[in-house]
Amino acid sequence: MEVIEKLAKTLQKEINWFKSVVDTSLALYFKNESNQKSVYAIAPPDLDKDSSPYAEIVKELQLGFEERLMLILAMIPYLKPDVLDVFLIKNQNLNSGFSEFGGINNANKPGFTPTLETAYFILGGYNLTTRLKLLATTNTENILFKKGILEIDAQQQFGVHQKLQISSEYYGLFTMGKKHLPQYSTIFPANQITTALKWEDLVVAAAITEAILEIKDWLKHSPKILKEWNFENNFKKGYRALFYGPSGTGKTLTASLLGKETNRPVYRVDLSLVVSKYIGETEKNLSRFFDEAQQKDWILFFDEADALFGKRTNLRDAHDRYANQEVAYLLQRIEDFSGLVILSTNLKNNIDAAFTRRFQNMVHFSAPDSQQRKLLWEHLFKENFELESFIDLDDLAERYELTGGEITEVLRYCALQAARRNEKKVLLNDIITGIRSVYRKQNKTI
């Protein structure tokens, strides 16, 4: 509640400032009496000592007068829509609204919906020089749109008629103190994946660590390489990696850790939903998803990628040929994506060679060797449970070829048995029974 109270106070200050700016703008435009000669004479609230999420974003991004006005203008329809009723007045000479106010008419939603045109009018009025300067600075590279704070309508050309729409992500941050990220649905075929684990929890071979470090370094240094060093014409912005290897070897965990390390949301795309629902409608249904992901700098993780990017040598009918066209579209969107895309598969050979040539990095997540398995046993068991005295982790690591995911499944079984006994202790019999259960799924026996 404390965060919400802080936000309410901050937003009220911004709204009061906005109202003063609008009153001055209208007075100057209609040549009424005003104490100010320019809207820029009305300083926005000082947020230096304000610790609310709204204030922190304003300070972090160093938002100027124009950006702050556009931001609060986009918020007002959800906070105090009556503040914008002043733009509903009619031009008596034409018996219609003032076209210079901009805005969008929506029969299903009363009130005034602002556009960039509205912001231009408030800031510039009759002044053509100010308007042209605003046109030059408020493009898709403007910090508010680039950071995904204001949404871009991909269905229309960006311009003065662009609706000033606060993203649901930042609307949640500015009203509740927490970003509201999109939820999985049939029209949004992805869900966010996170982890509470740390890099030291990822037990992999040295070659894998080195390859992951290269990806981390690109995410960290690519802005300098592309922008400051002017290599944008030499390299594409995006980075594409293929993670391949058996299940349970750390592919998904690595993707989650990369997001955690770089403060980027990671979204796992449900390719089964894409295949079953979107063949024939891929462009229509996935375009908006990619546009949003691009705008907000998400990491995209395509698990079991061979379901869509596998070899397609047999074209049995027109549907197969059309499906290939749709896959080509999806591949093109992946290639044009400016962030990190990770494709994951259990078997590299299942991925069409035409796709693999497009990756900057291909990381083989091999099954752990006995030394790595010992580290996993120690980390998962020894650090969390008392072990029966004659349990030999060296022997378990040497004898049973298990992945990290499979050892975790054994841990789950042992934890359940310990809970039933009401003691935080693992017995050797629990471990052997857990291993037997894992082996059974693979049609293997101990």
TrEMBL record:
Coiled-coil stretches: none
Q: Which domain of life is it from?
A: Bacteria
Domain AAA+ ATPase span(s) in chain numbering: 237-369
One of the Pfam families matching this protein, by short name: AAA
Query: Which keywords does this chain's UniProt record carry?
Result: ATP-binding, Nucleotide-binding
> Which stretches are transmembrane?
none
The molecular function terms of the Gene Ontology recorded here are: ATP binding; ATP hydrolysis activity
Instruction: Return the InterPro entries for the record.
Output: 26S_Proteasome_ATPase (IPR050221), AAA+_ATPase (IPR003593), ATPase_AAA_core (IPR003959), P-loop_NTPase (IPR027417)
Database matches in PANTHER family = 26S PROTEASOME REGULATORY SUBUNIT
Q: Which family does it belong to?
A: Belongs to the AAA ATPase family.
What name does UniProt use for this protein? Answer: ATP-binding protein
Species name: Aequorivita antarctica
